[in-house]
Backbone:
């Protein structure tokens, strides 16, 4: 018995050591520098003001922050750390990176989407180890340690052809470790900025720096944001907040091959444009280029063709969600009643991550006829079945007559945004949109 106990302890210690070694290996890979492979070298002129393809005309209104880059013989990249979380957290990181890549005229490297179930369960299983890594190195280790088995190429989720009309895109289909190895001989420039300290602006014109004194800023003091970017947090511990970092002033002249937005830098970038018209333009870059792939639409439309018309929909976010997991069915029922769901139809499509369908009995008792994606989806047994089903759920909710989502869920947020049910002011979208206008943050008008 004692021997067995010793063996178990030894096995656990060994597993912990292997995990630590893997993390250090990944870190060293990320920082390694060296010659650029010949096939990635090419001549290109970088000019922000002339946009790409169909976007050229819209791009021209960005002249005030646009500057021509010098001719370079290398392809320049920008990429982001996908956050530990679901696909919509990843999407937000991608959307911010897309804006920054477009501003800097760099090729955006996009990454596979991770299985939410695996990300959550592996974090829960080894919480103590992840926490100790995070204390020293910052956050988002779970994504970086995932294997390809639990990842889906992002081209299966998003229409990269559309995205390429706004920015050059390079798709990574491998896991993070292989990506780091493949690009290890390029020169990396790592950037870390936490929303506990501040946010990003495109550029503040000369002579206007004083305007930023009147910024309304509520630091994100969540444990996640406070754990991010430990070095930056230490450096600015006593500094006046917000720390406003300029995309163009800080990154435009960076010569490294890859700008890497590490940890939650991209996910929580909260980019603000100095000029309102540039903010409008940037919001269009996102709206025009972040769309589901044709394959996702095809399958979702098959489901839509079977559903009764009209139908209403709800998104009930449960499992790991801090806000919505604590809401009772009455929360959704009251919101549905407020919008007079029953006046349209009793057919109700339910998008949810809740595995226990008994939880939805109060909806049936209230007279709703429920439809779930499980009825239309053949499971493949892969870890990301839930995530793929979630994409169909989103398309279906987007096409419902009326919709009620979950508070604080970016999954619901994407549905609201795609339905056009957002708050608007001064020609800009204020909710479910990571990019905005600095003027909306100023106490005095710009
Ligand atoms: N199939 C399905 N999955 C969901 C649903 N809601 C949440 N999920 C899963 O949980 C993840 C939630 O993470 P995310 O998309 O980042 O949204 P958020 O955490 O609610 O902001 C999704 O990516 C899905 O894997 C749903 O309605 N249907
Ligand atoms: Mg999430």
Residues:
């Amino acid at each position: 018995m004692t021997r067995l106990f010793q063996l178990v302890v030894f096995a656990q210690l060994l597993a912990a050591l292997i995990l630590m070694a893997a993390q250090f290996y990944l870190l060293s890979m990320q920082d390694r520098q060296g010659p650029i492979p010949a096939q990635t070298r090419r001549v290109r002129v970088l000019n922000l003001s002339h946009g790409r393809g169909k976007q050229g005309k819209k791009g021209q209104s960005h002249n005030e922050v646009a500057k021509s880059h010098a001719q370079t013989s290398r392809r320049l990249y920008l990429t982001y750390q996908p956050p530990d979380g679901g696909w919509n957290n990843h999407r937000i990181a991608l959307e911010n990176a897309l804006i920054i890549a477009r501003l800097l005229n760099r090729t955006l490297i996009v990454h596979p989407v991770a299985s939410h179930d695996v990300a959550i369960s592996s974090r829960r299983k080894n919480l103590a180890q992840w926490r100790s890594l995070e204390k020293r190195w910052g956050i988002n280790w779970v994504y970086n340690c995932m294997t390809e088995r639990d990842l889906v190429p992002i081209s299966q989720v998003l229409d990269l052809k559309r995205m390429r009309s706004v920015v050059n895109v390079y798709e990574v289909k491998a896991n993070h470790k292989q990506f780091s190895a493949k690009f290890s001989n390029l020169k990396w420039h790592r950037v870390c900025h936490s929303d506990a300290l501040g946010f990003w602006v495109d550029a503040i014109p000369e002579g206007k720096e004083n305007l930023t004194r009147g910024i309304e800023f509520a630091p994100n003091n969540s444990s996640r944001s406070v754990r991010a970017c430990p070095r930056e947090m230490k450096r600015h511990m006593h500094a006046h907040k917000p720390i406003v970092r300029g995309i163009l002033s800080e990154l435009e002249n960076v010569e490294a091959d890859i700008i890497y937005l590490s940890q939650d830098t991209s996910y929580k970038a909260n980019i603000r444009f100095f000029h309102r018209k540039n903010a409008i333009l940037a919001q269009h870059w996102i709206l025009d280029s972040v769309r589901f792939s044709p394959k996702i639409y095809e399958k979702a439309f098959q489901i839509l063709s079977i559903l009764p018309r009209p139908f209403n929909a709800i998104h009930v976010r449960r499992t790991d969600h801090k806000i919505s997991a604590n809401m009772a069915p009455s929360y959704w029922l009251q919101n549905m009643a407020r919008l007079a769901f029953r006046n349209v139809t009793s057919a109700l499509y339910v998008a949810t991550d809740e595995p226990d369908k008994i939880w939805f009995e109060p909806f049936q008792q209230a007279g709703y006829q429920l439809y779930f994606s499980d009825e239309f989806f053949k499971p493949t047994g892969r870890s990301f079945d839930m995530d793929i089903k979630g994409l169909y759920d989103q398309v279906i909710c987007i096409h419902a007559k009326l919709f009620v989502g979950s508070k604080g869920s970016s999954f619901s947020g994407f549905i609201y945004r795609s339905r056009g049910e957002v708050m608007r002011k001064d020609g800009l979208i204020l909710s479910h949109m990571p990019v905005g206008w600095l003027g909306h943050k100023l106490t005095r008008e710009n």
Observations:
- Residues 2-31 form the longest helix (30 residues).
- The chain has two domains: 72-289, 294-408.
